[in-house]
Prior knowledge:
There is one protein chain. The protein is α/β, with parallel strands linked by helices. It has helices spanning about 5-10, 20-25, 35-40, 65-80, 110-125, 145-150, 155-160, 170, 175-180, 190, 195-210, 220-235, 270-280, 285-295, 300-305, 315-330, 330-345, 360-365, 370-375, 385-390; strands spanning about 30, 50-55, 85-90, 140-145, 210-215, 240-245, 355-360, 370, 395-400, 400, 410, 420-425, 430-435. The chain has three domains: about 1-245, 3-Layer(aba) Sandwich (Rossmann fold), CATH 3.40.50; about 270-345, Tyrosyl-Transfer RNA Synthetase, CATH 1.10.240; about 355-435, Roll (Structural Genomics Hypothetical 15.5 Kd Protein In mrcA-pckA Intergenic Region, Chain A). The protein has a six-stranded mixed beta sheet with strand order 1-6-5-2-3-4, with helices on both faces. The protein has a five-stranded mixed beta sheet with strand order 7-13-12-9-10. A two-stranded antiparallel ribbon has the order 8-11.
Amino acid sequence: MVEALGRAIATAPERGRNVYDVLDERGFIEIVSDEAALRAALHDPIARPITLYQGFDPTASSLHIGNLLGIMLLAHMQRHGHRPIALVGGGTGMIGDPTDKSATRPILTLEQIQENIAGQRPQFARYLDFEGGRFGGNPAALLVNNADWLTPLRYIEFLRDIGKHFSVNQLLSHSTYRDRLENGSLNFIEINYVLLQAYDYLHQYREFGCTLQIGGSDQWFNILAGTELVRKVEGGQSFALVAPLLTTASGEKMGKTASGARIWLDPVQTTPYQFYQYWVNVEDSMVERMLKLYTFLSLEEIAALVRVAGAELRRAKEVLAFEATALSHGEEAARTAQAAARALFTGEGDLGEGVPTTTIARVDLDAGIALVDLLIATGLAKSKGDARRLIGQGGAAVNGVTASDAEARVTSGDLRDGTLLLRAGKKRFSRVAAG
């Protein structure tokens, strides 16, 4: 299966199938505003393709795997002949989305927002075709920035023309606004956010003929507000569709490591090896669902992969990790990460360049470095206390030998061919090289 990666990614969707059914079968749909009407609108992408969009906050210089669910949904739509729009919120990012937040988000400067957008832009192109022709001549995707139409708005005119369609009672019916109001943390700027997001929908309805907005389930209220604005102002029909919130078996949001680190699409912030490791270590109960959501493998291929249980499910996890990593970082990076993982866990082959590597000055290694400090420097521990607990519990190893002394020091004498290998727990590794 792994060897067929290029075919799996490039495979054209089943012709004649309504993409709504494909999305539903793969688990992308939690709530939709008008299922029958939307299904009918999506029925004939050759004669009547629709335009849809999702917004992405420029709160960081990279997208993360929490954003990937929406991007994959857009990608399926494009592969089935519809036109996706990825909207970066250069305008709304100046306020910050209060949805599902208990406190006000930090206000970003214009420079920070622009830097973040510049970092995110190329990541969309891994999944979406902005030129046209990559996926059988389907419509080219659009990448837009809502600052282009929000920043020129005149505030008084905006309140008159758009604000009149929203009642305070309507806004406070949403739990986010209501709860924040009760604890005193809701400010006037944030209460305007839903108006701006609704206006995004109206603008794109007018400019691009956009009739569907998608998002996470926490965006349901905001997206519905947009459909209502389109109806009130233009008398048009538009749709809302939200995907489910993905959680682990323990109820925590997916997208972070056990240590709490977010999984970024930027290979500097999360290396391809770390990215691969995240997917290969998902819980057994989540493997089938992740294959459906985060790869383009057919449902038949996925069913064959997950027909086993226990240790035999490792093969399905490898395919998931390989395919997801190849989509975000390319096949070469995925193969390197896979080879490193197999070398670490089976002893087969060379580690290559896949394992995260930290370079330490040779003079410092000659003098000796405390193991607790080295664990922190490589990111395997967050603090000295964390490192000491790890060592005390027998969870740290140097070159495969379990460390038992919290006061131990690592020196250049521990190097093997110029490097040494640290392990934290059973699955986290880092290589140290002498510089």
